[in-house]
């Protein structure tokens, strides 16, 4: 059997194959993230990463010290932003390190390309880390399958850069937590530190691991291994995470971290109890222990919760209390179809995976069960947390596929492996009996009938023919599912998650691609034709892009740390022209930028976001902004002549529709809202400075005070309006 | 001001008196038809009135205000048409002028006469006036200068003739489509000279950098052109998107620059057009066209936004050329002969069909120009011949996987005159061995890493095994 191929023994062939397969999975993982780069170009396509790109550039140009102490006066004008103290610097430092290393080797790549390709490359690392965790939990084959799943799962792709960056260490770390070696625990702490430095989602991990430990304790599975690994991890990980200025002393203060601290204390008590048990009668200690457990857990839960965390427990909370959080589409509860869309058949295999985990309840499996349940809950609460669910889904589903395989026979497993990108020879490792390790699919489907390995979890009651059929059915099903999974993932990635938000692509009737590039047109106009210290007011969605592409000072951006300031911007946009003018002048605003989709039918425009602006403004200025006043008497959200007076007076409405009807004609329609246009829109205090080709971005200059002291309305009456 | 002018005139005449050379007659012809480039020709009859002294050179004074626009200056002998070698002298603070000295072919003996032609090209020497104007209206430009030609010599008789299209206003005398200032005699008082004319020709100014990248192994000459372009047209009184949208639809005229046309060689390939925030998706290249006996393709670049008067736009584009067409070798000595500067034309035309005439139009004035030629790693003994007066510097560059680095030749100059300036010649030695430098270094590095990995792999870190060994031993 052990024929040598390329002078390698079977075991060596196996590891070579594993490396090759993992390499191929990495290539697929990278490749599936390059749709937008290949279809469009190598730039940052989304809103948020523009900030990472800009800070990375700053880090590369100015060095680490000045990055750490960077006070960015061009953001959150006039407050500014302490960037060094309010970022998770992991991604920037990673990119800058890669950039510097490459330049040291005289490979002068552009920093933009480093940033663009960082995420795909890290997704390959994620796949590899997943492989290792899968190996830990089950075996190498499961690891490979898991890596193949996570490599292409759209739920992971949709969150791009930071997710792949941060979850690779997390998944790697979690898997190792149960090992009980101080070295691995320390390594986990290092990965945890890296995750803390890269993403705020580390809170999930720092709650999950203690929960795992707590569950093990509650199950009476305390062991010295657990003590060593958790204590090492917690102490090192917490101390390391506190080095990030943005985290600072939070691990000792905020409620999100209390569970970890409590569990740590509890573990010490339990360890002490175990030590003391040798000295004192047993039942005394059980009483003591239970008391301690209950009291500590209560303390852990009783702290102060921040709003964003509240919205995890009560999905309605944010909408009522903190509109800024609710206004982000990523923060909405996940609609049910999204689960299937992002995870495909992984979603309904999850319960089966949990079931199989329960059947063999090892420490690792306890972790998997906890992780899956919590991830499922959080994913249901916030769309963006779906990514926490993805890795665990892949593990559990691997378990399913594996289990289903071993149920029916070892062959289907090998089959499914083959589909997932694993060549057939890999099955040597799967069927440990090693009896069948060759050939193509067609051969193998026939073979198991003859060479049936005895150790099967399912009693082989049926005669040979029927068993064969059974296997074939299960196998064909899974084959089909895996095919469909791959197919679906590629389709979703290509169609849903790879369309950039910077440019819009459309097709002309003749099939040629037409790119609508209004955002960059306007941003570049700002960059080239306004004075370098001009302040641009826009809704916060465009803050990072404005800073990155237009290189101008913004009032609010995607950091959203100051709700009041955002509310002020909302108030400026929602109030009438004169109030807005006064407020804008007080904030030194030079330009106001609004996004308007009425000509093109771009539904993500500011008028459609306007209600959120109003709500956020109302939250802070309830006396000045009133949401109901923006609806018509019949409660409709209208923009035409029948709109409410408040709506028609608001700056946002005026700036969006100013002179729009003169180009669309008298019967013009707003193509987003499908309503007739307002006929008379005047703007006196602001002056149109730029409008992009398809009117998507409109920029207005805040007029200087009249030099004769008149109001701008009077000037306009005198001079005349266009 | 008047006092100052009078004072400088006084010193000027004193100096002139000290010199033995005088202009017995001088005619200046100014051509405004090719704005933003102004061609000025001074035809002077020079006489040596010194009793005994012979003159070997002739000095030209260019006032500082005008010198900032000076793109080229040449001196010819009128009869023979021979160009005289001209060198810049130090800045003359007394006259507030830059001086140039032309060396005469033969010394000018006492009482001899010589006719000289001084040709100057001034770039951006007309300005839009009124500076604010409806974009669809006819643009008006104004040429402003002094009525008298400044000189270090006494000028007995002179006049200035200005040729311009569609003159609307002037301070001289209109004679058959030309505006004439003068004739003036030696004692005439200087005054402003002004000619306003209508022209809807696009005018733009640019800061330009062209980079050549030479790759012997790939037989590739990469061209990269950086531009920072500014429209010189009058600014619109207010932004009017409605007019713009309708004008675009109706294809009516306005002065917004909508297309940038770059002729590129027919052999050019892999073209791209990028600015600071990524690709600009609106560009096209034509099939081969012909003009002035040369064949080329036209790269049609659309700026992200139409440039109204005063608007600025920065971008870069590039393409690859086959190196062998530009490189000649004699043994290890290589001669790279490439165009000194690329051409660009701005077009305000709203038509979809753009003609060759638009592409070869001279309407972008380069105010500052830098030429970079990056030679392959290992090129030595570098020598450069530039077709114009320019500063030449050598900078080290490290490109992909370079070990010793390569040299970039930087040729920089100010205003560039329009037209074909000819080629720049870069000579360098590049041996056949140097071609293998990079592959050898990279291979060595890889082997080095391999060797280190092998060595590290053979080191035993564990203690247990060592103990076992001891036991078994």
UniProtKB/TrEMBL annotation, chain A:
Ranges of Basic and acidic residues composition bias in the record: 440-450
The Oligosaccharyl transferase STT3 N-terminal domain, residue ranges: 17-160, 183-391
TM region(s), chain numbering: 16-35, 114-134, 140-157, 177-195, 201-219, 226-246, 258-275, 287-305, 339-358, 365-387
Region called Disordered, residue ranges: 430-464
Domain STT3/PglB/AglB core intervals: 535-591
Locations listed in the record: Endomembrane system
InterPro entries assigned: Oligo_trans_STT3, STT3-PglB_core, STT3_N
First-listed, main subcellular location of the protein, grouped into a coarse class: membrane
Membrane topology, from the record: Multi-pass membrane protein
Keywords for this protein: Glycosyltransferase, Magnesium, Manganese, Membrane, Metal-binding, Transferase, Transmembrane, Transmembrane helix
Cofactor(s) this protein requires: Mn(2+); Mg(2+)
EC number: 2.4.99.18
Annotated catalysed reactions: a di-trans,poly-cis-dolichyl diphosphooligosaccharide + L-asparaginyl-[protein] = N(4)-(oligosaccharide-(1->4)-N-acetyl-beta-D-glucosaminyl-(1->4)-N-acetyl-beta-D-glucosaminyl)-L-asparaginyl-[protein] + a di-trans,poly-cis-dolichyl diphosphate + H(+)
GO molecular function: dolichyl-diphosphooligosaccharide-protein glycotransferase activity; metal ion binding
Organism domain of life: Eukaryota
Gene Ontology cellular-component annotations: endomembrane system; membrane
Biased composition (Low complexity): 451-463
Record has Transmembrane as a keyword: yes
Pathway where this protein functions: Protein modification; protein glycosylation
Pfam families: STT3, STT3-PglB_core
Record-stated family: Belongs to the STT3 family.
UniProt protein name: dolichyl-diphosphooligosaccharide--protein glycotransferase
Originating species: Linderina pennispora
Automatic annotation (TrEMBL), chain B:
Cleavable signal peptide: 1-24
Subcellular localization, as worded in the UniProt entry: Endoplasmic reticulum membrane
UniProt pathway: Protein modification; protein glycosylation
An annotated GO BP: protein N-linked glycosylation via asparagine
Keywords assigned: Endoplasmic reticulum, Membrane, Signal, Transmembrane, Transmembrane helix
The name this protein goes by in its record: Dolichyl-diphosphooligosaccharide--protein glycosyltransferase subunit 1
Keyword match Ligase: no
InterPro entries per record: Ribophorin_I (IPR007676)
